[in-house]
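Service request form, structural biology core

Requester: graduate student, group of Dr. S.
Request type: structure prediction, single chain
Budget code: on file
Notes: please return the result as structure tokens.

Sequence provided:
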Amino acid sequence: MRIVISEFMDEAAVDTLRQRFGAAAVHYDANLVDHPAALATAVADCDALIVRNRTQVRGALLDTCAKVRVIGRLGVGLDNIDVAACDARAIRVIPATGANALAVAEYVIGTAMLLRRASYLSTGEVSDGKWPRNRLSAGRETAGAVMGLIGFGSIGQLTARLASALGMQVIAYDPALPAKHPAWQEIGVRRASLDEVTVDADVISLHVPLLDATRNLFDAGRIAAMKRGAVLINTSRGGIVDEGAAVAALRSGALGGAALDVFEQEPLPAMAGWTGCTNLILTPHIAGVSFEANVRVSSMIAAAVIDVLQ
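Core staff response, request fulfilled:
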């Protein structure tokens, strides 16, 4: 039995796998994803492969996985895995559904509060002896604002609960979730159309996969239709927001702030055009990665892999 882990995983979960199958059976290298030749060699005779979002399990790499029975995904998105091809090869693909939902929801709420207040990014000025008190005195409170969610699955629903607890009004668009689903009423969220959420929300948070239907969903036209000064948050997938349109809207002041954790190209190229944008938070695809979430995600996938292989 052999298990390859190509990206970072909680050490306790790795040790669980070593204890179950033996230390020699577990090849753990958090940087293996950055060495394609070594990765291909490692997966050629493994029974299980554990990845995050950077390892592209498709094409030539998937063809190399001749013995693989299960692929564990340390997260929920599966766009880096050719699931159909895995199904055809009888390879189980197991995501860590729900394990990082709280980390993402807290990221959304935290960045929404920071960007609406628009006063927490002044450390450099204040430490340099400047005193931009007047300019930073027009920040907006969270309570009473409208949170608009695009996608109302498990992460969207948890985000809605946190937003509601802070006194926000929550509206959501999700054509896949029936109007009679109990979550709408239980959480107190108004079901709305995409256009209604776009126009009415003070904060828009995206929680949808990258599909043909969602690619550039928030393009220049849709961003222009948002409330002037509204905040846009993307923790779902790069490519759903037109990055050039977001830059232009931030620079013109039409968009009041943005928090982007995912990008069309990752890592984001140096000097990618964001320089000079104010009220902007860029993070390296870590909204769902907290210390606690990593423990939950890793232990869930370790247990799932053991269950398949034993």
